[in-house]
Structure formats: structure tokens, C-alpha cells
Design the sequence.
């Protein structure tokens, strides 16, 4: 159950069911005996300075939770709901938090802002995966972003849990992994990392396998089609080996802040870290 950690979804602006642009983010978390929903809206400058209705969506319900005031394309809103015996009380509805699929802000008849934590069958068309963008267009967009000093726009990647591939592990797990996966030296030194995919997450301890649902990790994976896993002997003690999972990306301050929000506390590249340089956002894991 997700309540013991904050879940974050990216918000997107839609017109007639088609995504127009990113529009901020929304978080869903448990604080003591309350479910807390925090929204931060941006980049919707066409709207009038007024309040707009907000709805929580489940597979079968559309629950009104009030309004959010948007001014000059931006808005912030926080809603809290009483949580007791595994259910949240939301405007006379009793719902399990895991039933909450999305949040929707109704701007006009065919213009909405939406953020999805869990995709439903009827909304499967909203699974926005970056690699579906034609390569030529993607390269142009990335080049334009870099030229303007902006990072690649982080997209909301929400999809069903990937199928995990069983991996045979010998007594020396790390040596076995090096025999099974492609070895890389991403930072130009002696440290060895292996290239893995989402389906390979069974090599991690069970507590870390839930990272297959981490939106920041999915964004990086679907952009570059790989992740890295390796150990850093320079950290820890002689009795401790530290392993790190790396998500490929380009270093920008905005991406760094998003990465930290999703649990990736560091960034490393070959040579000095500089704005616009390719490398990996890292977090510690156990195998």
C-alpha cells in the first residue's frame, strides 16, 4: 500500500483528450490520520484568474473536492481528508486510497488538467511514454531545450506494473550479475556498472523492487532504454558494499530538484558535473 510514502504524479493540460503541455505536479500522502493532496499548477496562462473545480477520480467515481484558484497560469492548493480504518472520508464517500486513480481540474468543457497515479482500462490512451514521440521530433525538441538552457521536460509516465524477469543468482550475487548483463564504465574510471532494464528488477531486494513504479525512473528509462546498477567501493566500510541504481539524464537544476523529490539524491557524470551534461541520477539500493 502506498500510504507510507508520498506518491507524486505530473499534471498535464489536455484539450479534447490530447495532451498540450505539462502543468505542474500533484502529491498524495498520509499525514497522521489524514490523506493530504497538494497541487502545484503552472504553465496554463490562457485561463482566466478564477477558481476551477477539482475532482478525485476512481475507476467508478468522480468526487468533487472543491476548487483551485489559478492566476497568471499558476495555482497552489492543498486538501486534507480524514483517514480511518483503511478508508478516507471524501465528501461523504468512503474510499480506499489505493482506489484513487487520478485528479482532474475542469477548466472548460474540453480543456482539463489531469494527473494520474494509476491508469485505468478506459483511460489507457493517456499512457504518455516519451519514446513514442518520433525520433526526429524528439531530437529537435531536446536541442531546442538545451539551446534555451532548459532541461528535457519531465513527462508523467504512468503505466501498468512491468513484468519482472526472473534472474538466476549465484552465491556471489554481484559477480553473477556481471556475467549476465552488459558491463559499463559510465564515469570513465575503474568502477563497474551493469546495464539493466525494468524487467530485471528482481535482482534487487524486495523493498526496492517497488521502484518499477517510480515516475522519474520510468521517464529516464523510456528516454534512454537502460538503467545502471553498480557498487562504489569508495563509500562505506570494509564490511559494507554500497550499491547504486542510476537513471540516465541530463543535468539541470530543475531535473535535480525533481530527482531528489523521487528519491535520487545524487548526480554523477564523466568528469565535472555541468549544466546540460549527460550522466546518471543515483540512489542507493540493496541487491
Sequence:
Amino acid at each position: 500500500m502506498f500510504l507510507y510514502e508520498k506518491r507524486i504524479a505530473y499534471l498535464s493540460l489536455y484539450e479534447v483528450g490530447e495532451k498540450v503541455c505539462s502543468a505542474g505536479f500533484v502529491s498524495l500522502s498520509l499525514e497522521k490520520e489524514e490523506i493530504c493532496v497538494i497541487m502545484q499548477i503552472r504553465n496554463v496562462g490562457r485561463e482566466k484568474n478564477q477558481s476551477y473545480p477539482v475532482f478525485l477520480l476512481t475507476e467508478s467515481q468522480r468526487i468533487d473536492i472543491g476548487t483551485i484558484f489559478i492566476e497568471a497560469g499558476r495555482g497552489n492548493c492543498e486538501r486534507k481528508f480524514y483517514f480511518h480504518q483503511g478508508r478516507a472520508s471524501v465528501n461523504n464517500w468512503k474510499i480506499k486510497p489505493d482506489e484513487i486513480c487520478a485528479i482532474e481540474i475542469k477548466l472548460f468543457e474540453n480543456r482539463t488538467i489531469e494527473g494520474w497515479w494509476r491508469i485505468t482500462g478506459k483511460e489507457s490512451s493517456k499512457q504518455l511514454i516519451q519514446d513514442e514521440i518520433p525520433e526526429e521530433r524528439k531530437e529537435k525538441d531536446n536541442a531546442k531545450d538545451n539551446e534555451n538552457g532548459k532541461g528535457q521536460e519531465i513527462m508523467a509516465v504512468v503505466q501498468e506494473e512491468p513484468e519482472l524477469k526472473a534472474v538466476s543468482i549465484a552465491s556471489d550475487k554481484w559477480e553473477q550479475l556481471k556475467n549476465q548483463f552488459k558491463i559499463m564504465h559510465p564515469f570513465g574510471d575503474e568502477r563497474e556498472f551493469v546495464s539493466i532494464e525494468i524487467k530485471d528488477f528482481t535482482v534487487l531486494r524486495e523493498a526496492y523492487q517497488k521502484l518499477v513504479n517510480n515516475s522519474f525512473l520510468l521517464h529516464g528509462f523510456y528516454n534512454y532504454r537502460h538503467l545502471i546498477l553498480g557498487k562504489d567501493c569508495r563509500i562505506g566500510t570494509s564490511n559494507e558494499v554500497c550499491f547504486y541504481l542510476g537513471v540516465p539524464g541530463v543535468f539541470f537544476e530543475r531535473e535535480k530538484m525533481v530527482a531528489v523529490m523521487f528519491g535520487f539524491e545524487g548526480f554523477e557524470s564523466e568528469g565535472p558535473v555541468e549544466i546540460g551534461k549527460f550522466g546518471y541520477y543515483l540512489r542507493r539500493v540493496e541487491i
Remarks:
- The chain is about 15% helix and 40% strand.
- Residues 121-171 have pLDDT under 50 and may be disordered.
- Residues 160-285 form one domain.
- The chain has two domains: 2-126, 160-285.
